[in-house]
Amino acid sequence: MIKKIIPVILIGTLIACNNEEKGNNQNKLQYPVTRKVDSTDVYFGNKISDPYRWLEDDRSAETGEWVKAQNKITFDYLATIPFRDKVKNRLTQIWNFEKRTAPFKKGNKYFFYKNDGIQNQSVLYVQEGLSGTPKVLLDPNALASDGTVSLGGLSISKDGKYLGYSINRAGSDWSEIYVMEIESGKKLSDEIKWVKFSDIAWKGEGFYYSAYDAPTTGSELSNKNEYHKIFYHKLGEAQNKDVLIYEDKEHPLRNFSASITEDQNLLLLHGSESTSGTSLAVKDLQKPNAPFVWLVKNFENNYGVVHNEGNKLFVITDKGAPKYQLLEIDITGKPDYENWKKIIPESTDLLESVSLCNGKLVAKYLKDVTTRLYVFSMDGKKESEIQLPGICKVDAFDSDKDDSLAFFSYNTFTAPASIYKYNIVTNKMEIWFKPTIDFKSDDFETKQVFYTSKDGTKVPMFITHKKGIKLDGTNPCFLFGYGGFNSYYSPEFRIDRAVFLENGGIYAIPGLRGGGDYGEEWHKAGTKCQKQNVFDDFIAAAEYLVKEKYTSHEKLAIHGRSNGGLLIGAVMTQRPDIAKVAIPTVGVLDMLRYHKFTIGWAWATDYGTSENKEEFDCLIKYSPLHNVKEQEYPATLVTTGDHDDRVVPAHSFKFIATLQEKQKGSNPVLIRIDTNAGHGAGKPTTKQIEEYSDIWSFIFHNLGMKY
C-alpha cells in the first residue's frame, strides 16, 4: 500500500506531572515521538506536506512498533480511571439479554438470528412453521474461538434446500462464500474466495456472486479494489470453473451486483460508480444466450427492483422524484423512461421501501426521520395506514406476496427492539418477541426538536434523557452525528449508550444534511463543495443544546463513526472549543488521499477528489488532517481497527500523530487501535464491550462525571 520504509520511531513514556493549567489537574502525557519524513505532494501549485505518510504502510515492522507504543500510552491512561472496571461490568450486565431479529420465511420454514446475551456472534436458527421448535442452523461462534469470524450475507435457494452464506474474518470486507444443506446441516465442499460487496443470487443448482481478482499477497487490506466481476457458480464445482457472466474492462472502478426475480426468470444487474447512483440491466434467463438489456446506463439516480409480474418490473427510484416513487417498467414492450408507469408517486415524505404482502404493497415512509407504514393495492391505490405507537423506526419488514403475515422489528431510543407479527387481512398486530433487559426503559423519554443551522435551514434532532431532568446547563451530553452517503439515524436502542443515560447523561442525534433524512436533495446539500453544511449543522446542534441549557461546552462529548469520524475531525479542528471530549471512530481524516485505498474511490460522489481543482479547493479547507493547528483541542480518543479495509487505519494514524505534535494544554489526545478488528461490522461482543467500556470511561472521566 505504501512507498517507503522509515527507521523505527522513538518511543516516549507515560510521564505524570502536576499541571494546573486552566485549573485542570489531569496528568500531562508525553506521547510517542513519531518520526517525520520529507514527503510533499503538489496539488494545482499548492505544496502539501505529508510527514507521516510512512504510517500508511500498516503492515510494516516500524508501523507495528508505533501501534504498540500508542496502545501502551492509551491503555496505561485508561487504567488510571478508577471506575473503568465498573463501567465494563455494568455494560456487560445490560448487554446480557436475549436478542432476536424478525423472522423471514422461505417455503414453510422460518429463519431468524438469536443471541442468548453476550455470545460473540448471533446464531442463525430455523423452524418449521410458526409453531415449530427452533433449531440451530449455523453458529458462527464455532468458527473462531475469539469470535472474530462473523456471518455476512446469506441466501436460501428457491426450493429451500440450500443455504448460501458468506463469512468475514477479523472485520475485513473480504468474504468467503460457503454452502450448507439445510435439512441435514451438512456443509458442502463449495468455497468461493475474494468476494466483496456481493449478493448470493440462487438460480437452479447454483448461484451468481460478485468478486475481484485475488490481490497481491501482503496488500489484501490496502490495495485499490478494481475490476469487479459477476460469476455463476454451480454446486459441487471448483471456483476456477465458475462462469464469468459480466465484466467491464473499460471501467475498472465500477461495482456490479446480481439478483434474481422471485420467478427465477430474470437476472438483474445493478452497476455503481460510487455510493450513490446505479445503472440497471436485465437478462431473460428463459432465452439461451440472451444479452443484457440496459434499462439505465448512467449513474444519475438510484433504482431498486421490488417485484416483477412477468416482464413488468416494479422499481423504486428517485428518478424524477427526490423523495422516491414506485414505477412499473415494461422491459419488452416499452422500456424507455417516458413509458414508465407511476404506481406510487412521490409524496411529501420519503419513500424508503416497498414490500409485497398477500397481494398488497406495503410502503414504508420516513416522516421527520420516523417510520410510517401504508398499505396500497397493486395498482397504487392507498387503502390504509398500519398504526405504529410513538416515535419509532421499523426495520426488516419481512413479508411474502402470497402470505397474509408479516414480521418487523420496532425500534425506539429507550428500549431494545421488539418483534411484531402483523396480519394484513385483519389489520392486527401483536408482539412476537419482546426482550427483557436490565435497564429501566420507562424512566426515560425521547423528544424531537427542530433547530436552525448557520444558513437558516431547519434541522431535526432527537434528544433522549431521564424523565424530569433539570435543564440548568450542567448535564453531561453526548452528541452523535453522521451526515453522509444518503444515510440517516432514526430511533434505535444502543446498548452502550444506556450506561450514559442511566448516569444522568443526555443523548442527542441531529439529522444532518448529507444524510437521507429528507431524500436526495437533503443528501446533495451535504456533498462535495457543500460538505461544510454538514459541519455547520452539527455545530448548530451543539450550540442549541448549550443555549437551551441541556448542557454546556465543558459537559459535551461529540462522536461519529466512519464518515461521522470525518465529521468529528472537521468540527473539532474548526471549533476546538465546541466540546470537552471528541471521539472520531474509524474516520475518513485525510481527504486528499482517501480515494487511493481499497474502496475509497467509490466515495467521490459525496466528497469529490483532490484530483479536481475545484474539489481540491474545498477539501483542503476542511480535511481534518490538514487543518490541525497548534492550539488546545478537546480530550480526544481516536479509535480504529488494524484490519479495517474500508477506511484504512492510516487515516487515524496520521491524524493522531499530527494532533499529538500540535496539541496545547493538558487534554489527552490518544488513539485506541483494536487488533483483529475492522470497520465495525461483525465485531464480536467481547470486543464491542471492551471498546465501549473504554470510550465511556474516557468520556465520564473527562466530563467530570461520577460513576
CATH class of the domain at 83-92 and 440-702: Alpha Beta
**C-alpha Rg (nearest Å):** 26 Å
How is the biggest beta sheet arranged? 8 strands, mixed
What characteristic shape results from the CA principal axes?
A: globular
Secondary structure: helix percent: 10-25%
Strand order of the largest sheet: 32-33-35-34-36-37-38-39
Number of helices: 10
Can you identify the CATH superfamily of the domain at 83-92 and 440-702?
Alpha/Beta hydrolase fold, catalytic domain
Mean pLDDT: 91
Terminal Cα span:
44 Å
Q: What descriptors fit this protein?
A:
Methylamine Dehydrogenase, Chain H; alpha+beta; disordered N terminus; 707 residues; five-stranded antiparallel sheet; globular; Rossmann fold
Describe the fold and architecture.
It is built from ten helices and 39 strands. The protein has 707 residues and is α+β, with helices and mostly antiparallel strands. Among the domains are: 83-92 and 440-702, Alpha/Beta hydrolase fold, catalytic domain (Rossmann fold, 3-Layer(aba) Sandwich), CATH 3.40.50; 100-216 and 232-239, 7 Propeller (Methylamine Dehydrogenase, Chain H), CATH 2.130.10. The strands form nine sheets. The protein has an eight-stranded mixed sheet with strand order 32-33-35-34-36-37-38-39, sandwiched between helices. Strands 3, 4, 5, 6 and 7 form a five-stranded antiparallel sheet that branches. Strands 8-9-10-11 form a four-stranded antiparallel sheet, with no helix packed on it. α2 packs across α3, α2 (84-95) packs across α10 and α5 crosses α6. The model is unreliable at 1-26 (pLDDT under 50).
